[in-house]
Fold each of these.
Amino acid sequence: MSQEYTLAVLDWARAAGLVMPLRERVFVVEQGVPAELELDEFDPVCLHAVVRTTDGEVIATGRLLPDGHVGRMAVDAGWRGRGIGGEVLEVLVEEARGRGFEVVELNAQVVAMPFYARHGFTAFGERFMEAGIPHRAMRRVLRA
């Protein structure tokens, strides 16, 4: 990991105030997701990966649901393409592995499927719409 930023895994009580401004910028402003869909009942029971610059700016996040699903992956526009999203994803996968999950699943935006494929995820099922954006389910097997 770069010395420009740090990555921590936090509970919702510590993560909420940090990640919501980034999630609102990425999902609501950039992607047009309705604001009322962005915050849901699952956040309080998830683990949240939070990446901050040395000056405290939150530049990436993602969450692990109690059932082993990864979601709400977001990287600030100015920090994309530097591998930070991959670091967030791998930390969440390791958290799932540590909790005994044999498979990690996620609903990938279709445009992001190549990113997830590079991290060992394979698509299954049909495309579907979520928050007005085309998605496809993907999974990564952790144990044979």
Amino acid sequence: MIPRTHIASARIPNGPEMHLYARGGDHMILVDRDELMSTRMSGSEEALATMTAERLGSRPKQRWLIGGYGMGFTLRAALRSLPADAEIVLAELVPQIIDWARGPMAELTAGCLDDPRVRIVQGDVAGEIEKGGWDAILLDVDNGPDALVRALNQWLYEPGGLAVAKAALRRGGILAIWSAGPDSRFTRTLARAGFAVEEEVVRARHNGKGPRHLIWFAARP
């Protein structure tokens, strides 16, 4: 088996340390011993964007907010799905993530950060949500609504944060949230917040294999 090589580390503000590793042609990011993401599994992260785009249809001049770059799977899928008049704001809390994307993972990044539709904001996605006027807000900043990666993110998944997200969406806009697994309590919380809620189970790998992840699509009526 090819050994795993440590490439770099970065501290999440008010959170744990992340580590970037490489094994052969693959990369993975871990927190402690937990693998957060890997180039071997991108299906559900891409579905976060493509399935949102399908639901929004051909709305003109769409404005999307993506919380968390990760390895860029969601951003690249969004760029493939959206026309030239779209705008995507990418909020990334950890600046080293962008450095890794432009450095050791530049081949995977494929120039997506330099697309004219993309504006990168270093900081907490919550501050961008509050600015409003979004057709889509895509959140993949935790492993789900338990804010496993950063405790301060818990507000995003509670009634107060969901009320802010709903107000920030244009009518018919979508709040899409990625999760490593189901959470029926959170589904009820979304519904009580006034969203029209859909749940989609998506496999981690494109071949229909790998872990089952879940995406909530919460539309503002």
Amino acid sequence: MRETPAYAAASAPPPAARRTALPLPLPAGWAAAGAGALGTAAAGAIVGLCSALVLAAAERPSPLSGPARHGFPRWMVGPLAGRLGGLPASPPALAADLVRVLVGLGVAWIVVWLCARRIPAPALCAAVVVAYVVLLLGPPLSLTDIFNYLHYGRMGPRYGLDPYVAQPLAAPHDAAYIYSNWHHLPSPYGPLFTLVTEALAPLSVPVAYWTVKALLLACALGTLALVGVAARRLNRSWRRAVAFVAFNPLVLVYGIGGAHGEPLMLLPAVAAVALVVIGRSGWTDAAAGACAVLAAGVKPSAALVVVLVVLGARRRWWAAAGAGVAGALTLAVVALRYGGHLPATGIQDRFVTPLSVANVVAALAGQGGLTAGDRTIAHALLAAVALGAAGAVARRRERLPGAAGLVLLAGVLTLGWTMPWYVWWVLPFAALARTRALAVACVVLTAWLALGAIPQMPVLIHAAGFYPTRSAAGRVNHDFTQRYLR
């Protein structure tokens, strides 16, 4: 509360005290201004690095964009095509530049996160929107998943094929097929996700491609808005929460830049937790339960959150009822649209990436790689974490964000097949958790998943003496994965 002039004069310290006290607020003020300037500069650096990466990927076919290796049509590359001269011709040089961009983005992410409270809200929001839009205006970075989405979605409406039974190879003449890569794998995506992509089947591939990108952008920004609202309700800095999620380097490069479908799952999953946090009525609890189940219908891994949301709701029966209604609708889609067939998650669960935590632990244990027994142990550990988290939420509902993040983190750590953007599953809940331990774990996980994603990974692990395919278990895992990835 501001003092009146009379009260200020009456309470003013003597001149000597004023001379010693006057400079004291100045360092704090300068520190705050410096933190704001540093954070704003780091946010600008993120926009610049993302722009440079997209311009490089859009210049010509290169390893920066997986689909572009099968052709470089203007409709896929986007409006930023051919605007960057002097792109290195050497793939190793491009790979080195990609690592530099990831390191730069990682450092800037930490700086923005630490300084976010002092960054002007318009500058922070503008940096998020510009970075995301620029990344989506270019070709898909790294992998081809967006075309897998489109091809699975076109199999039913155009060719009468059930994507959960038939292999994409059954429709090789489709326009999306040449850019996709899971040709021998029935769809592992949730039925609600597939239903959304089937709605795009009447469109041409270029129009469907940009429609998916626009939808992902809207869902990603909506998720960030929910994180900000929930953070304010929990008396946390919404700027820090949003910056922590939005500017993660793996989210930027591989999540947004790669046009992966995680936002379609995260939007209802974060909405479920946010509704529990901000809601005060039975209807909001029912909506929270429904949103949690819808997230699982988009991506089955989100099923880990459903029980937590129901237990964390103030009116658990309302939340359970909402979850039951959404579950019934999802099962109706499975039964009526897909003949009762479910996603091929059982097959995908057997895939192994060299630096997944589960595979590295199995190798260090002397087994050479992940085995069927190891998967059983990993599933048991995940179940134990989920049960512990459920018990914690049942006792204290304010633990819900942290519990959801912990369970999803355990899900990533126990998977044999991990992709760099999987850290995105955990970030929104870590940003809302009461403890910073989960956020620190996300920083460590980001560094580890980035190591597994960079082009130099095989050389690095071989230099460390790790040869995943030289063991019997490693060869089995490699051959099994390659059977589907061709």
Amino acid sequence: MSTTQSPRSDTRARILDVALELFAAQGYEKTSLREIADRLGVTKAALYYHFKTKDDIVRGIVRSMAAPIDEAIAFGEGKPWSPELRDELVRRFAAGMVERAPLLRFFHENQPALRESEAGLEFKDRMVAMIRLVHGPDATFHDRLRATMALFSINSTLFLLKQDAGEACSPAGAEPRARTLEEAMAAALEVALEIAARIEPATVQA
């Protein structure tokens, strides 16, 4: 069976790529369907064939680019909690976010518009599911907070990397700053694992 994409699926993928680029660069609310169509070199009617609204496009972006999170959730569901599972989930989440950095940047730059959108709520549900798997059963509030902070330390990396890029070099004697996405994500994973290491549900401790 051929794995070549159909023209329709290829066009959908191009729309999602271009829309994500425009949304991240100038904001969700400031980007029109006309601009997306113009960037693609197609008519609005052709765009409507695939996506009727901007919300439809955002849902497509989330569903196509959040696959690593879904895979990590599927990996963890049904398995008994253990420190090894906890750390593996954090590693898989971090690896997925490296691959999906544009999605993270998109959410960081467009939080007000997306917070209560269907796509935003879908992404929130994914994060809640990941957090629950990381902290395990019967977790205390502190462990739930640690699981949340572990994952969000990875999600926050792009914000810090962007901030560093706009500032001067580190002062003499200071630790060198991450200059690439890979360096930043490696640091984020280290911090996330340090936080997660303090999580151990009471049912496991007993």
